[in-house]
């Protein structure tokens, strides 16, 4: 594998595969990678297998993970040592003094063209969007092989109406070669072929796409170009090498080799800027390079602006470009982009419409869109034609295509979005895109599922459809195991994605609108759950009460019950046991009255925990008899996970240690295998740590404590983290370690931030009494 082949292979990896690769090369285990990226272990293994195949290692997949890592490490040490944290060898870097400032970073491209010529390619089409340096590369390549007199230049045009006739171009080149053209076109072609047979020559056909139609064939009035290729340029007799530059491929069935030109890499930009004696901040240069996708024209324009207007201060220039609305684009680059859109609009209107409509996608949390996400935007194109339009747009190289999915570069997306907003398709494009995201996610099993489903929210928000914004959050999806599942809002809580959901809901609520909505009760319950997880219990209680009042107003029994349950759990976390019990009794009574069997079951395991804390064993046993944890009712992930957790803590409190072990281990299996639920896993680990402490197995106890704390710190579950530190302190205390005071103080600090005085009192009593007190 050459350096050029390696770079192109690496750039074609999806962002997720690149991240998996980075963590894998860094020594992480599959399970750790899966937890870090919120994906499954199977996905990690599949990615590693695909990555190896991607880099030509498909014939060897050893079972030993160390061997799999070693050969990938060897490959990256050779071609990309910086990913391993190793320095780049000086000879591998392109030094400023050794470069041609007008032709930088194209050594690999020159070698690739040589390889095509060595394989007897007579015509090569260099394909890329505008500004990537197609013409510069073509000229440089031909000048390296031929003298100026040996290069024939066929400039096509900027627009279709200005395309030069092939007859006139052939006549011009014949005269350049000292030959008179014939009266008929075929005679002229024969004479040109004879001249190109005499000695090796170069031919440059520049900017071909204005001569092509929507199918990337020559437009009817310029079909004669086909004869130029057939009779002359592709003839086995001629010694010419023909280089074509185009923003679209040529689909005439001709033997033309296609060479997609990659953007310049950041090392080329670095070398170019250094040639002009501009000291660049590596981070700033990478941002600039990424924003302009390595575009060669952009590189020159930016360098000039930095030199002339900012005295060579790259960081000052880039800071000046940043505004509240994004980044300012240089006028010359903006004009280039507008010209590309204009050309596409004239030549391929369906593809132009699709490109503009693709501007409605955000390409942020979900960086790429499946092909189905493009097809649905072609509502005004016959179904049989939609695949063709997507292909046309892809061939124009204005969209990024990676691993079967599509995206727009930020600069292209900005222009597409502007045109979409100014047109008549803005609302429909967003509505259709929202429906695509909703329909593409059938069940929420991972963070990736939840984030994809939530994209629909942003589209409805863009068209100010408040009701459907709420519907995205409260829609219930069915799951693969337990039947009825949670809303998307609840899934965000389960998966620890609360920051994103909170900030988004605050964009739509303005509380006046939200309180009028039929969905207000559920939305406020979602907000309450998120604030509960974050440890802001006072705000959570406020939202739960608002949700309950709205549910009463709209006579929504389900939300009333959820509100009462959530309020009781907040009180339990505050260690206000009597208030928690009172709310749970109301919850139980209402669920029994309305024959809500799942809620009645939940009330049993919640009240069972309350009575076990109070030492009321008879009441606890009575509730446990009424509660069947293996019931086939349609549990949500929350009720299933918490049924196992609360039952485990209840059994521990009444000293049934063996049963408690079984329940906590079931909770962990549920959180790892059935549904990704890190909070449930962490709480179960804390429970197991308590059990091992009771059995004086301090090594296992400490191990479980630390694993639990690590998870809780990552997801930001503040109340659970405070409890985990408290339990760790109790273990250290029982071991006789002075370090226990540190963890007691950490727990007190967190409960102080949460404003839970009774929890603080509980901890201080433990510190004073040297006794467990959960």
Top-tier CATH class of the largest domain: Alpha Beta
Q: What is the CATH topology classification name of the largest domain?
A: Rossmann fold
The strand order across the widest sheet is: 2-3-4-1-5
Radius of gyration: 33 Å
Ends apart, CA distance between termini: 62 Å
Low-confidence stretches: 87-98
Rounded mean pLDDT score: 86
Number of strands: 12
Number of domains: 6
CATH architecture field of the largest domain: 3-Layer(aba) Sandwich
State which percent range the strand residues make up: 5-15%
Mass-distribution shape: elongated
Number of helices: 38
The CATH homologous superfamily of the largest domain corresponds to P-loop containing nucleotide triphosphate hydrolases
* Proportion of helical residues: 55-70%
Biggest sheet statistics: 5 strands, parallel
Q: Helices and strands: which structural class?
A: mainly alpha
